[in-house]
Write a structure and sequence with these properties.
Layout: E1 5-9, H1 13-24, E2 29-33, H2 36-45, E3 50-54, E4 56-57, E5 60-61, H3 62-72, E6 77-82, H4 87-96, E7 100-103, H5 108-138, H6 149-162, E8 168-171, H7 178-187, E9 196-200, H8 206-214, E10 215-216, E11 228-229, H9 231-234, E12 239-243, H10 250-262, E13 264-265, E14 274-275, E15 279-284, H11 288-293, H12 299-305, E16 308-311, H13 322-336, E17 343-344, H14 346-354, H15 360-374, E18 379-380, H16 387-391, H17 405-419, H18 424-431, H19 435-444
Parallel strand pairs: 1-2, 1-3, 3-6, 6-7, 8-15, 8-16, 9-12, 12-15, 17-18
Antiparallel strand pairs: 4-5, 10-11, 13-14
């Protein structure tokens, strides 16, 4: 089990040695320094978790030293030791980020428990930092799969706008990964350490959406039994992602416009505006210009939202990325189902590339998940694809698939069996063949 690395900085050698012996008995690893300069050199060489530092040292003051350490090594915790009780110093030390401030000699029995608590805090901070790195990696531009020209162009635009606070409008068909792209913009921005809050505007009624986004006051409507913070407040200093913005009721669009113009909004039932500092990213699969013509969307809001537009390509426009995406989802779903990673037959990949993908990446993900579940070997084949997916492919895009008589017959039998919900007697009648013939065909074509 890992132990804490403690650095003692004190110019009194006898006290330093005494503390070192006490702390080592508790299985801590201890380093020593007689002044701040030597302590800084030690920090450059050793991975220190907790510092025990005297306040008055020959080359400086421990209270001021905290600021320097925290700016360079934020995860390190510092406990100050002093021979003189000084309330202003202790207050300033805590403000500067000290873990605690104790008296030499009088508080010796407190040192070990303090070290343990300080070490726990450093470990927690390290875990949080690692998780933040993982989240950042998961939602970064580097995590977006695809090397096709349309994807690389969208990523380039995303990187450029991420460095600003400009409002972004993401456009594209449903399932093209707009939320993932919005998260990548957030992670690449100066707000990356703050909240990313997403809401789908098509999910709620007008009243609920207003309360969700802007919050409400206690008693502002029936059922408002307590005050509620809205998502704009939750996202303060961070980013809010408003998906399907074209579905937002026209009455709420005025409130959103006010946020864009002033950074303020009124909670439901409130008379005092709430101010926020939020980066706004929106997305839509609609043509907002058409919605404006039909009086479903405010022109002034559109002009504010569309300052910087990024069009995300459909899967049909990035066929060269399909295999990489399929491999990514296969790896995920194989891990979830405790299967070894499955390989693809040539026909499997070709069929994926020929399909028009009306549901885009979201549909591909679902198709791969199903294929991984039903696969009977370590190679995914066309037979592992959903029946409707294969049968409904346009003839022009299926190569010789539709022209192979046996394959066409197999697909037709599968379709009828699906329609008959697996009832073979009913399926045989619909097909106009005997039940024995149907069973023979099922065996011949290895229909599951």
């Amino acid at each position: 089990m890992p132990t804490a690395n403690v650095l003692i900085i004190d110019d009194e050698e006898k006290l330093r040695s005494l503390l070192s012996r006490i702390i080592k008995l508790e299985n801590f690893t201890v380093s020593e320094a007689g002044n701040l300069k030597a302590g800084l050199k030690m920090l450059e060489k050793e991975p220190i978790d907790v510092i025990l530092c005297d306040v008055k040292l020959p080359d400086g003051n421990g209270v001021d030293f905290i600021k320097d350490i925290k700016s360079k090594y934020p995860a390190i915790e510092i406990i100050l030791l002093t021979a003189y009780g000084n309330v202003p110093d202790s207050v300033q030390a805590m403000k500067n980020g000290a873990f605690d401030y104790i008296m030499k000699g009088d508080d010796n029995e407190k040192i070990i428990p303090l070290l343990n608590r300080a070490y726990e805090k450093t470990q927690l901070q390290k875990r949080v930092t690692e998780l933040e790195k993982l989240v950042g990696a998961r939602y970064s531009f580097e995590s977006i799969i695809g090397k096709s020209k349309p994807v690389l162009q969208a990523i380039e635009l995303g990187r450029k706008v991420a460095a600003t606070d400009t409002v972004v409008l993401l456009t594209g068909e449903t399932g093209t990964g707009k939320e993932v792209f919005a998260q990548a913009i957030h992670q690449a921005s100066s707000r990356a350490g703050k909240s990313f809050v997403a809401v789908n505007c098509s999910t709620f009624s007008k009243e609920i959406l207003e309360s969700e986004i802007f919050g409400h006051r206690l008693g502002s409507f029936t059922g408002a039994v307590k005050e509620k913070k809205g998502l704009f407040e939750e996202a303060n200093e961070g980013t809010i992602f408003l998906d399907e913005i074209g579905e937002m009721p026209i009455e709420l669009q005025a409130k959103l416009l006010r946020v864009l113009e002033t950074g303020e909004f009124l909670k439901v039932g409130d008379t005092k505006p709430t101010k926020v500092n939020v980066r706004i990213i929106t997305a839509t699969n609609r043509h907002l210009e058409d919605e404006i013509k039909q009086a479903h969307f405010r022109a002034d809001l559109y002009y504010r939202l569309s300052v910087f537009q990024i069009a995300l390509p459909s899967l049909r426009e990035r066929v060269s990325d399909i295999e990489a995406l399929a491999e990514f989802y296969t790896e995920i779903f194989c891990a979830k189902t405790n299967k070894p990673t499955l390989k693809f037959s040539d026909g499997f990949v070709d069929t994926l590339k020929q399909y028009p993908w009306p549901g885009n990446i979201r549909e591909l993900k679902n198709v791969i998940e199903r294929a991984c579940i039903i696969a009977n070997s370590n190679v995914l084949t066309v037979d592992d694809l959903p029946f409707d997916f294969r049968f409904n492919m346009p003839a022009a895009n299926t190569g010789d698939l539709i022209y192979n008589l046996a394959r066409a017959e197999k697909l037709h039998i599968q379709k009828i069996l699906a329609y008959a919900e697996g009832n073979k007697t009913k399926a045989a009648k619909l097909l106009g063949i005997g039940l024995t013939t149907l069973y023979a065909k099922i065996k011949e074509y290895d229909i599951q």
